[in-house]
Amino acid sequence: MRRRHNRAASCQRRNSGMRAHRLTQSVPGVTVRHEGMHDIRRSLPEETPTALVFDGTTAAVMMASPSDIEDFAMGFALTEGFIRGLEDVMDFEVVSHAHGIEARFWLAPERAEAVHRRRRNVLGPVGCGLCGIDSLEQALRPLPVLPEGGLRVSCSTARQATDALRAHQPLHDQTRAVHAAGFMNSGGVIGLAREDVGRHNALDKLIGAMLRGGINPATGAIVLTSRVSVEMVQKTVIAGCPVLLAVSAPTAHALRLAEGARLTLAAFARGGSFDIYAHPERIQTGACHAA
Predict the structure, then answer these.
(1) CATH architecture assigned to 153-290
(2) Beta-carbon neighbour count of residue 190 at 10 Å?
(3) Domain coordinates of the chain in residue numbers?
(4) Active site annotated at which positions (predicted)?
């Protein structure tokens, strides 16, 4: 993505010829079984320092899988309040270095102040979605309330959501060590999915891909391979998606946020069953009883 900024050309030239960061690495090991031991090789996922840079200031450095970086950057910028939409981005470049990746934004003048309000300056490990936030108020910022009505998800669609996502996880199939986030329409079709070593990163990548592709989050559900923590609810609500289906449990605080934001939250969605914890009206449970 290149927009009205003279610095874009020079960034692109610096990017030319730089190394591509590998997604996986094959490593040796020894497997131990009841019948004995033998040598093996495994594909392990790489994680690469990825800097989110706004108007020349690094706002965050996250460890991420080095794929779909533009999606990740756009989703991060949206869900963390740096931008409200693509119209806030004057220019954007991805620059690859030997030791990592930079996603460089130049914001519209009226949005530049967001960098100061959401200041982050520390390395964020993949297990932490709130690293570097410099106040408790920012960590638990108020969420918008999703509108009533709209999307309805059938019981059968909710039951098969995480199974449907499995068909869109090639990196997980190779490594067994990454998370995925997918967008499922009301008919149960996963039309878009992203993977990453970090569950927050996978969700940001998905939201960024939807933003760039002009996909309305209100028309479907987000499906996760992870637990549901506070930041996963925050990102889903800020994106404007009304239904969140996850393979694992929510935290109690995440559930409170979902209730207040009118987000439908279902968890333990695997093996043909699921639990509903917040705003069940968007899932047609009558059909579940009939089955």
Answers:
(1) 3-Layer(aba) Sandwich (3.40)
(2) 21
(3) 7-35+44-139, 153-290
(4) 128
**Whether 128 is catalytic:** yes
Q: Residues 254, 226: contact at Cβ < 8 Å?
A: no
Q: Assess contact for 23 and 66: CB atoms under 8 A.
A: yes
Residue from 11, 128, 131, 155 carrying the catalytic annotation = 128
Fold for domain 7-35+44-139? Ubiquitin-like (UB roll) (3.10.20)
Question: From residue 70, how far is each of 75, 86, 179, 216 by CA, in Å?
Answer: 8, 12, 18, 18
Per residue in 215-242, pLDDT (tens digit) is 999 999 999 999 999 999 999 999 999 9
Using one digit for the tens of pLDDT, what is the confidence trace for 131-181?
A: 555 555 566 778 999 999 899 999 999 999 999 999 999 999 999 999 999
Residue 3 has pLDDT above 50, yes or no: no
